[in-house]
């Protein structure tokens, strides 16, 4: 078979503007600059010398950025109908971690070994539609003293996820996927939850002391790079952003995952049964309960026999009510037009739209089957349809509605 070609992925190279931060890597950079870049992904097990790539670079791309062999098995080139891959490159500055669960990774002496010399960058690639995200730390080593110059070698440490976006129903277990690839060494893991401007660490693994904080379940098998997190019985309070950070000596990479809780509403019409009289208005109620998120829309329609459906305009809603579990409820009201004799066989419907119901939404309909005695005396017409509709005006021998007895 013909040799596999290198995949080329358009990226943005983002860094601090010169002069802002004294060497870069400041916590709050004042200005950022971005340039077009090209991330070249050789076929698995192969290397492409940088000098061989530069003649093929587009004019707007500057040479000199490192290439990397990916540690994940997906195509970086979107096919027809696939979503574009988001790619960003940033300068990277190795440093010790200062969180308690990673402080012991570098040992008591600390300091920066010569192996950290050279040029570092971090590449972040995301395609939520294809269910993957990856961050790779790239290292191009400088020449060693007394050694002849060689082709620069790029090493990587990678953190990845296959669940960048998740949705869950209430009460279901949720698996937040996170894994890493790196040289065999001690490591620490942190899982952080952020929502509505607040954040907290929900689980941390101290790789140096082999300790773990209590919290959700962490998949941490001996010799495994799987550091996924399981949430038991997801609730509304679990919604938000989850950040999986993997700490190595002097290095750190992370992946962020968005969890949304979606619970479809229950919809009921009331009152059933209820009395309806000729030439009077009737108020109906549509109870929408137990849903999340809060946003919901309601459309009322009246379906008269032999005529197009009409949207009822005289409608109003109660305020949203929130249950202790965080789900929401509301009641939508509609006023039916005054019932006429020709409305026999008509129906009304309450159509609810919510993210948990899909594009079709949910509709509840009741058909008006009017039954009663014959006009001018005689037998009574059984009353069928009363249970189905909860409505019982009276019909005459020729479909004419008779006034109720007084």
Automatic annotation (TrEMBL):
<feature type="domain" description="Ig-like">
    <location>
        <begin position="152"/>
        <end position="246"/>
    </location>
</feature>
<dbReference type="InterPro" id="IPR013106">
    <property type="entry name" value="Ig_V-set"/>
</dbReference>
<dbReference type="Pfam" id="PF07686">
    <property type="entry name" value="V-set"/>
</dbReference>
<dbReference type="InterPro" id="IPR007110">
    <property type="entry name" value="Ig-like_dom"/>
</dbReference>
<dbReference type="InterPro" id="IPR003597">
    <property type="entry name" value="Ig_C1-set"/>
</dbReference>
<keyword id="KW-0393">Immunoglobulin domain</keyword>
<dbReference type="InterPro" id="IPR050380">
    <property type="entry name" value="Immune_Resp_Modulators"/>
</dbReference>
<dbReference type="InterPro" id="IPR013783">
    <property type="entry name" value="Ig-like_fold"/>
</dbReference>
<protein>
    <submittedName>
        <fullName>TAP binding protein</fullName>
    </submittedName>
</protein>
<feature type="region of interest" description="Disordered">
    <location>
        <begin position="382"/>
        <end position="406"/>
    </location>
</feature>
<feature type="domain" description="Ig-like">
    <location>
        <begin position="265"/>
        <end position="369"/>
    </location>
</feature>
<dbReference type="InterPro" id="IPR003006">
    <property type="entry name" value="Ig/MHC_CS"/>
</dbReference>
<dbReference type="Pfam" id="PF07654">
    <property type="entry name" value="C1-set"/>
</dbReference>
<dbReference type="InterPro" id="IPR036179">
    <property type="entry name" value="Ig-like_dom_sf"/>
</dbReference>
<dbReference type="InterPro" id="IPR003599">
    <property type="entry name" value="Ig_sub"/>
</dbReference>
């Amino acid at each position: 078979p013909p040799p596999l070609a290198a995949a080329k992925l358009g990226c943005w190279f983002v860094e601090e503007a010169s002069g802002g931060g004294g060497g870069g890597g400041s916590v709050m950079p004042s200005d950022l600059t971005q340039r077009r870049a090209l991330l070249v992904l050789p076929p698995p097990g192969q290397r492409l010398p940088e000098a061989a790539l530069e003649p093929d670079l587009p004019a707007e791309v500057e040479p000199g950025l490192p290439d990397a062999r990916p540690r994940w098995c997906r195509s970086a080139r979107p096919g027809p109908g696939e979503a574009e891959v988001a790619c960003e490159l940033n300068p990277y500055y190795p440093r010790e971690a200062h969180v308690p669960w990673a402080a012991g990774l570098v040992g008591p002496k600390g300091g920066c070994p010569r192996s950290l010399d050279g040029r570092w960058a971090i590449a972040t690639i995301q395609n939520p539609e294809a269910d993957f995200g990856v961050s790779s730390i790239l290292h191009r080593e400088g020449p060693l003293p007394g050694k002849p110059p060689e082709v620069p070698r790029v090493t990587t440490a990678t953190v990845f996820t296959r669940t960048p976006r998740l949705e869950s129903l209430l009460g279901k277990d949720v698996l937040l996927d996170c894994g890493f690839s790196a040289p065999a060494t001690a490591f620490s893991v942190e899982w952080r939850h952020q929502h509505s401007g607040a954040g907290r660490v929900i689980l941390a693994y101290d790789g140096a002391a082999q300790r773990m904080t209590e919290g959700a379940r962490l998949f941490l098998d001996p010799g495994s790079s799987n550091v996924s997190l399981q949430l038991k019985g997801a609730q509304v309070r679990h919604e938000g952003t989850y950040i999986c950070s993997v700490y190595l000596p002097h290095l750190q990479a992370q992946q962020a995952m968005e969890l949304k809780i979606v619970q479809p509403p229950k919809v009921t019409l009331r009152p059933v049964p209820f009395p309806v009289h000729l030439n009077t208005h009737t108020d109906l109620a549509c109870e929408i309960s137990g849903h999340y998120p809060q946003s919901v829309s309601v459309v009322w329609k009246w379906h008269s026999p032999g005529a197009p459906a009409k949207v009822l305009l005289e409608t109003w809603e109660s305020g949203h009510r929130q249950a202790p579990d965080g789900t929401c409820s509301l009641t939508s009201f509609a006023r039916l037009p005054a019932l006429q004799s020709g409305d026999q066989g008509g129906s009304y419907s309450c159509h609810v739209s919510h993210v948990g119901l899909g594009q079709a939404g949910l509709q509840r309909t009741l058909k008006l089957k009017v039954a009663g005695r014959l006009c001018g005396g005689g037998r009574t017409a059984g009353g069928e349809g009363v249970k189905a509709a909860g409505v019982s005006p009276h019909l005459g021998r020729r479909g004419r509605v008779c006034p109720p007895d007084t």
